[in-house]
Amino acid sequence: MDLAILRALQRNGRMTNAELSDKVHLSPSACHRRVQRLEQSGAIRNYVALLNPRAVSLVTTVFVEIRLSGQADEILDAFEKAVARVPDVLECHLMAGTADYLLKVVARDSEDFARIHRQHLARLPGVAQMQSSFALKTVFKTTALPL
Questions:
Q1: Which DSSP symbol is given to 87?
Q2: Which residues pair with 91 in a beta bridge?
Q3: Is 108 exposed, middle or buried (0-12, 13-18, 19+ CB in 10 A)?
Q4: Parallel, antiparallel, or unpaired: how do β-strands 127-134 and 60-68 relate?
Q5: Taking the CA atoms of the chain, what radius of gyration do you get in angstroms?
Q6: Terminal alpha carbon distance of the chain
Q7: Are the CB atoms for 94 and 45 separated by under 8 Å?
Q8: pTM for the predicted model, two decimal places
Q9: Would you say the C-alpha torsion 99, 141, 119, 76 has a positive or negative sign?
Q10: CA pair distance 14, 9, nearest whole angstrom
């Protein structure tokens, strides 16, 4: 039942409790208790509005591979704290393989990305090498986890 609730909320987080309870075939009070329990347990982390990047003029997505100068905890920690403060970075992943980190960055255009690169990315601590790849088209994108 919890998975059915989570699946429904991933598709429409704004539905009312009455709509949700009808969709998962529970009474409204039982459904509300389950949702509260899922929120308290951390299974439901947050409710957000998913914006259309084009509608807010952020049409360029760039994936940036970062190699650091070393793997010491101090270097990793300093990098992670600094990159978390860059507003244009949507995601940062510690990687296995040739790159240490993979960033997903949004920008208005290539000139805006050049500004982000100069003002933020090039100043990140411990960076030895960066490689940027511009996405030409988003073929598929979802925020829903496969439950």
A1: T
A2: 104
A3: middle
A4: antiparallel
A5: 20
A6: 12
A7: no
A8: 0.91
A9: negative
A10: 8
| Dihedral Cα 139, 142, 146, 147, nearest 10 deg | -160
Retrieve residue 139's tokens.
């073929």
* Beta strands 101-107 and 127-134, pairing class: unpaired
Condensed to tens digits (0 to 9), the pLDDT of residues 71-121 reads: 999 999 999 999 999 999 999 999 999 999 999 999 999 999 999 999 999
| 100 class by beta-carbon count within 10 Å (0-12 exposed, 13-18 middle, 19+ buried) | buried
Closest CA to 108 of 52, 65, 61: 61
Question: What residue has token string 């270097």?
Answer: 75
Q: Which residue has the tokens 């598929």?
A: 140
Strand order in the sheet with 101-107: 89-94, 101-107, 60-68, 127-134
